[in-house]
Amino acid sequence: MENYASSWKLEQLFTQKGPFVHLYTKPLETTLLVEDDEDRKAIMNLIALESREQNIDVLAYALMSNHFHLILQADEETSSVFYGKLHRRIVRYLGGSGKGKQFAEVISGTTRITSLKQFRDVVAYVIRNPFVVRDDVNLFACLWCSGFLYFNPFLNAVSGKPGRELSYRERRKICKTSDGDIPDGLMVENGLILPQSYVNYRLVETLFGNARQFLFWAIRNIEAQIEVARSYGESLSLSDDELFKISRDICRKRFTSRSPSEMTEPQKKELAMILRKDYFASNGQIARLAGLELAIVNQLYPLTSKTR
Question: Of the candidates 166, 186, 179, 190, which has an alpha carbon nearest to the alpha carbon of residue 52?
């Protein structure tokens, strides 16, 4: 991990390069923002175009089915202006459909990122978003989440074509406007403005320090992810492997036991309560990790029973 000197230098760099904000939209409740890859391309292209037009660096992103997250190198006022214009672009793209009307009224939020630790926590939270809700998503190999950009030696294997060199028809399709103006520097492949041509992933790499630090925050630092999720009023889906480590830590620290097999049933039920309340574990996970019969867990939590 980091030594004191390198940590201090990165803290200084964070201060120099800031401010940073986390911009996010509230999930649509009764419809989807994106339904297929064409929708995903369209929204990502609009984010790229607006960020270039307003000269704002995107540092991380996650496009979900009914909302999105962006980390920007900007202050709250600038990011608010950015989102206002981006919001109008997206509403225009969605048109008069049900989801267009819903997104026109969608609530957005911004959170100022005030420390290097918070920056790392939130970047990890953002890029984990698709991974924790879909079991077919690779955290480091998904176009709709910026996790694949960082510390990737194969990133430039796909270089794309300068947007300005596309035909007028191709540019109009990407921009969703009649002028079809694509700023210099934006590269396009298969109708998508390549994220590596507008996301400042190099700054993110620098602020994490090295690939090992980045992987630790993205994969191992689960407690921080839970803290971030709570701060936004969200729950975080954790895998059995992630919850296994957490449950064993609880066993040692709270019950001075190595595993639930050494604990009394009341202690197991207390562990079950902690896993449910603090870590959003499903009933099936609780039964496996606390060493309780599933029937007992379902009696404890009958209204929210999930037996995955």
Answer: 186
Sign of CA dihedral 176, 179, 184, 189: positive
Domain with CATH 3.30.70.1290 in the chain: 4-231
Residue matched to tokens 């060493």: 291
Q: Is 145 helix (H, G, I), strand (E, B) or coil?
A: strand
Which one-letter DSSP state was computed for residue 178?
A: S
The listed CATH number (3.10.180.10, 3.30.950.10, 3.40.50.720, 3.30.70.1290) that belongs to domain 4-231: 3.30.70.1290
CB 13 within 8 A of CB 206: yes
Q: How far is CA 190 from CA 100, 155, 158, 194, 195, in A?
A: 25, 16, 11, 9, 13
Q: Tell me the two tokens of residue 123.
A: 């970047």
Per-residue pLDDT tens digits for 72-127: 999 999 999 999 999 999 999 988 667 788 888 887 889 999 999 999 999 999 99
For 115: left if phi > 0, alpha if psi spans -120 to 50, otherwise beta; the answer is beta
Instruction: Count Cβ atoms below 10 Å from residue 77 Cβ, excluding itself.
Output: 10
